[in-house]
């Protein structure tokens, strides 16, 4: 099966996914690297600021920088990460954005059967039309109830601890839409902090994407279930973090 990974330049998530596939013996035909990472993130920040305001966006940026999981070494899961894309895929291409003509040209030349998104944000329909089997995304929330941003924190804020987890879904142009292939509820261990929980959910997302590549295709598509009604969440305001943390501590104390 011809697999392409679409990722941001310098993305730790994308690098982990490619290494995980390498360790699992799953060949990757192509990686397309979106090189204009700063501009793409600024575009995302501006879009979020229009919905929730710059104070919320900047608060999340600062929160991420202070996380103990922000700075990581060159090892992961007890192995040394291979940083060179050329050692992780047969073909390496780059483009400025998913909408750029060079991105479409590279994907068409790569002829993917399966396209994996590694935290690229929304991609246009013209990209989704290229893979012959599917485009997959792993979302760190339970779909369809928790679409959008900070799904784990919103679920904790609403005290729906059984709705914390991850989902693997086929990608459509709308945010976190598309039939669901797998839902994996989070197993609480009792030592969770918001940072540690976010880390573990991202790890689960990587496992879901890699696991999908080990399935029998196209038979695996038969388990795809349409999404029902749900809610699309924006960034959670920083002034709600104390309540989220309090809810989490109380929940863990009663277990």
CA-to-CA gap between the ends?
44 Å
Structural class by secondary-structure content: alpha/beta
* CATH architectural label: 3-Layer(aba) Sandwich
Query: In CATH's first tier, which class applies?
Result: Alpha Beta
Strand % is 15-25%
| SSE series | EHEHHEEEHEHEEHEEHEH
Q: What shape does the CA trace take?
A: globular
What's the CATH H-level homologous superfamily?
Formyl transferase, N-terminal domain
Task: Give the biggest sheet.
Answer: 7 strands, mixed
Low-confidence stretches: none
Note the total helix count: 8
Please provide the count of β strands. Answer: 11
Task: Give the CATH topology.
Answer: Rossmann fold
Count of all domains: 1
Biggest β-sheet: strands ordered side by side in the sheet = 5-2-1-6-7-9-10
Percent helix: 25-40%
A few lines on this structure:
The protein has helices at about 10-25, 35-50, 55-65, 100-110, 125-130, 150-155, 195-215, 240-255; strands at about 5-10, 30-35, 75, 80, 90-95, 115-120, 135-140, 145-150, 165-170, 180-185, 230-235. With about 260 residues, the chain is of the alpha/beta class. The protein has one domain (about 5-255): Formyl transferase, N-terminal domain (Rossmann fold), CATH 3.40.50.
Description:
- By secondary structure, the chain is an alpha/beta fold.
- The chain has a single domain (3-253), classed as Rossmann fold (3-Layer(aba) Sandwich).
- The protein is built from eight helices and eleven strands.
- The strands form three sheets. The protein has a seven-stranded mixed β-sheet with strand order 5-2-1-6-7-9-10, sandwiched between helices.
- Strand 1 (3-8), helix 1 (12-23) and strand 2 form a beta-alpha-beta unit.
- The longest helix has 20 residues, at 194-213.
- The protein starts with a strand and ends with a helix.
- The model has no long low-confidence stretch (mean pLDDT 93).
């Amino acid at each position: 099966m011809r697999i392409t990974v679409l990722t941001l330049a310098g993305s730790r998530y994308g690098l982990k996914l490619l290494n995980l596939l390498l360790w699992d013996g799953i060949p990757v035909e192509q990686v397309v690297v979106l090189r204009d990472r700063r501009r793409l993130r600024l575009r995302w920040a501006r879009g979020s600021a229009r919905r929730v305001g710059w104070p919320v966006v900047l608060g999340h940026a600062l929160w991420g920088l202070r996380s103990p999981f922000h700075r990581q070494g060159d090892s992961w899961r007890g192995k040394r990460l291979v940083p060179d894309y050329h050692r992780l895929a047969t073909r390496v291409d780059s483009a400025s954005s998913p909408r750029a003509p060079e991105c479409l040209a590279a994907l068409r030349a790569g002829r993917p059967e399966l396209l994996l998104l590694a935290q690229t944000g929304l991609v246009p329909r013209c990209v989704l039309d290229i893979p012959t089997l599917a485009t997959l995304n792993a979302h760190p929330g339970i779909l369809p109830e928790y679409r959008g941003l900070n799904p784990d924190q919103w679920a904790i804020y609403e005290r729906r601890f059984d709705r914390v987890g991850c989902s693997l879904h086929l990608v459509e142009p709308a945010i976190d839409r598309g039939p669901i292939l797998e839902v994996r509820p989070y197993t609480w261990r009792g030592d969770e902090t918001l940072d540690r929980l976010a880390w573990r959910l991202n790890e689960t997302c990587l496992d879901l994407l890699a696991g999908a590549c080990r399935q029998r295709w196209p038979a695996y598509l038969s388990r795809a279930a349409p999404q029902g009604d749900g809610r699309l969440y924006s960034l959670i305001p920083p002034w709600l973090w104390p309540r989220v943390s309090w809810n989490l501590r109380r929940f863990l104390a009663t277990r």
